[in-house]
Amino acid sequence: MNRVRCLVLNAALGPLDYKVPDGMSVEPGQVVECPLGPRAVIGIVWEAERLPGAEVPAEKLRPLRGLLPIPPLPAPLRRLIEWTADYYCAPLASVARMALSSGGALKGPATTIEYRLTGGLPERMTPQRQAALEALEGEQATIRELAGIGGVSEGVLRGLVNQGCLEPVEVDCDRPYHLARPDFAQVDLSDHQQAAAATLGAAVKAGKFAPFLLDGVTGSGKTETYFEPIAEALRMDRQVLVLLPEIALTEAFLSRFEERFGAKPVLWHSSLKSTERRRAWRAIANGTAQVVVGARSALFLPYAALGLIVVDEAHEVSFKQDDGVRYNARDVAVMRGAFEEIPVVLASATPALESLAMVESGTYAKLDLPSRFGGAAMPTIRTVNLTEHVPGRGSWLAPPLVEALEERLARGEQSLLFLNRRGYAPLTLCRNCGFRFQCPNCSAWLVEHRFSRRLACHHCGHETPPPDTCPECGEPDCLVACGPGVERIADEVAERLPDARVFVATSDTLNSPGRAAEFVTLVENGGVDVIVGTQLVTKGFHFPDLTLVGVVDADLGLEGGDLRAAERTYQQVAQVAGRAGRGSKPGEVLIQTRHPDAPVIAALAAGDRDAFYEAETEARRMAGAPPFGRWAAIIVSSEEESEARDAARRIGDARPRHDDMAIYGPAPAPLSLLRGRYRYRLLINAKRSARLQDTIREWLGALDHPAGVRVGVDIDPYSF
Ligand code: ADP
Ligand code: ZN
């Protein structure tokens, strides 16, 4: 029977049946062109044999148009796609699309055309042409990408092509990557590293599913430890995937990798140029990309021969995707390991409670690195009670912290001040009439960015220059900044320590691998005395002369009643504390707080991780939260407020009644307006044994909504 069932990528239709034309032979996983209405769309052959419920009679089937010249998606990946769609209640096609997210990789020859400057000038210079020529110096990319880089239209660039100022370059997408060599430069491991590395190496050799939690304090050398199983996989000619939370900051990782293996790994993240993306995708699919370092989306790529997955900083929130397919890459990584039958390593100094529970239940094996590499001591930690040591007006640094900064400056050591707030001030208001600057698209204040002179929404990217007068009452000089962001803290440092060289490190300033690398070099060469940074600087960096970490406001993350707030605060503060005293000089951490007795803060100050986890475990048990129970959210949104509210009510009215599930809401979501869409939310708290996903599917599947309404499901949500 030459009938196949295909997953059509750009349709929410579910799998469709097609006829295989005579002379064409297909197998499951193959990427094909499927007729759909008047068009042809990309599909994946999902089943080629047993087709239960084949309703369309054979003579009515339309024939496949053709096969795309790429390897079929391997069976373990197809199973992962099915599992992900099922577990996260997402459309199969949306998940499958992530596997093929290579755009141009699918079709045509293995070359693309990029453009670069020739050095020639146009006959007629215009301001736009001038701007483009300046901005594109040293760049080479497709016309569309160059338009983005240069901030001009594609039309302007085509004009420059015609004038001979830009020339085409043919780029071969199959040009090989440099080969990594497993034994290029081996390092001597500490005994603990050695033991963990041997276990992991043996697991790679065994080629069986085996999940590990590599639980090592900050500075214990987790990276060098998991380099060894990577070497083992390379020796076996198997591919390795390393997931990192902050791909913009990979430069330090990449050079360490290069030192060890003699070549850089292949990168995968959302801001790759299309040509690089295409090249990486093809090399991953044909097996020539040996080690891939990627953001969470790298998890769904069609590796030809995967042998190991490492998730570094596995507790990180950024592994959770919060729109489209809402999945947690840490959990999906373990599932991929199960389907591929390979080991998976979750590395962290502050593992998620869920991961520790998996160790407890015997599902994951735990490998410990209990001390810092090279004998560096853990930093001493103390709290600064802000109700006793009150910073002055318009000041956020209490006297003990200022003194500590001064001491470091005098000794020529470096300090890091941590505040998880970009910009200068989170709120701007009018002293005269009380007007507050709010985003027109989101229920959020506009954040003042003083260095770049703009008010910006951190949710949708809306921006406006700060006006001189209040837009409401017209009064001049009446706008005041409320609260601190990192820029304001940097100003305060500059004022109190006029000799200090201050660097603000956020995603605004370290927005490319190049700038991140410059920052690292600058700090390493002693060009900075005080770093003021957001969570971006809490992980990965190793600065031996950095001996003081100040947490400006440890209470910030605890506001808002989020179930994971305590855990996130613990992780952030412990991680940033881990930047102090990594070299030969001892480190000190000062935590500014108004609640020194809160269990999280007390545990941090005592350096008692177990105490924190015990308290947190108890709180979760009481709340029926993971790992004891499960949460899910249903998010209903529309551009029309009433439409969203009505749809959410209809869903609420149709709620199923089960003893093992409690359903709350609908209520406005915490961000009740986001990117122009009004959002309502229902929360479900279920016992572990409940049929959570099936219930949600049956419940939502029975309801229809107006076309403008979107209903999303968030299984195991992170923030609510
Ligand atoms: P972690 O990720 O556990 O916080 P890192 O992997 O960043 O720790 O290691 C801390 C520092 O110790 C790094 O500079 C690293 O290069 C160094 N290091 C770790 N293990 C070794 C080793 N076996 N030999 C030499 N240097 C090491
Ligand atoms: Zn906004």
From TrEMBL:
The keyword Zinc applies. InterPro entries: DEAD/DEAH_box_helicase_dom, Helicase_ATP-bd, Helicase_C-like, P-loop_NTPase, PriA, PriA_3primeBD, PriA_3primeBD_sf, PriA_C. Residues 203-369 form the Helicase ATP-binding domain. Zn(2+) 1 binds at residues 430, 433, 470, 473. It holds the Pfam family PriA_3primeBD. Its cofactor is Zn(2+). This is Replication restart protein PriA.
